[in-house]
Amino acid sequence: MNITMYGIPNCDSVKKAKHWFAENEVDYEFHDYKKLGIDAATLKSWSKEVGWETLLNRRGTSWRKLTDAERSELTETRAIQLMIANSSLIKRPVITQNESVLVGFDESVYAEQFLSAK
């Protein structure tokens, strides 16, 4: 199936996704943003698939720590630059399988995507 989960190990949503994958015996690789980083090409590809607004985590402390100038008048290019500089600004987890990209944790979506393919 070639599934990769991108995220940060101590993120609650990532923990839930990992638990769901383990419970449902779905194999995946884990890509830790903090250790391995993320590149612009990957973020641009995801942005093309789901939109940069979906990828940008505006709920966390990293977002709140940005200056007003950094948060205003965002474009895809600027948002990707911010996400590269601070991977905590990427919503988690991001799950890729072949060409599809899922953002966040949703049991029903996961079941449809990963269990129906078994």
What's the arrangement of secondary structure elements?
Blueprint: E1 3-7, H1 12-23, E2 29-32, H2 33-36, H3 40-50, H4 52-55, H5 61-65, H6 68-71, H7 76-85, E3 94-97, E4 100-103, H8 107-115
Parallel strand pairs: 1-2
Antiparallel strand pairs: 1-3, 3-4
Can you describe what's shown?
- The chain has 8 helices and 4 strands; from the N terminus they run E-H-E-H-H-H-H-H-H-E-E-H.
- It has a 4-stranded mixed beta sheet.
- The radius of gyration is 14 Å and the shape is globular.
- The protein has a single domain (3-115), classed as Glutaredoxin.
- With 118 residues, the protein is an alpha+beta fold.
Mean pLDDT: 94
Number of helical runs?
A: 8
Describe the main β-sheet briefly.
4 strands, mixed
- C-alpha-based Rg, rounded: 14 Å
> Per the principal axes of the C-alpha atoms, what is the gross shape?
globular
How many structural domains does the protein architecture include?
1
CATH level 4 superfamily = Glutaredoxin
**Are there runs of 5+ residues with pLDDT below 50, and where?**
none
Which structural category fits the helices and strands?
A: alpha+beta
What series of H and E elements makes up the topology? EHEHHHHHHEEH
* Number of DSSP-assigned strands: 4
Q: How does CATH name the architecture? A: 3-Layer(aba) Sandwich
Helix content: 40-55%
> Could you please say which CATH topology applies here?
Glutaredoxin
Oligomer: single chain
Text of the CATH class: Alpha Beta
Tell me the β content.
5-15%
Strand order of the largest sheet: 2-1-3-4
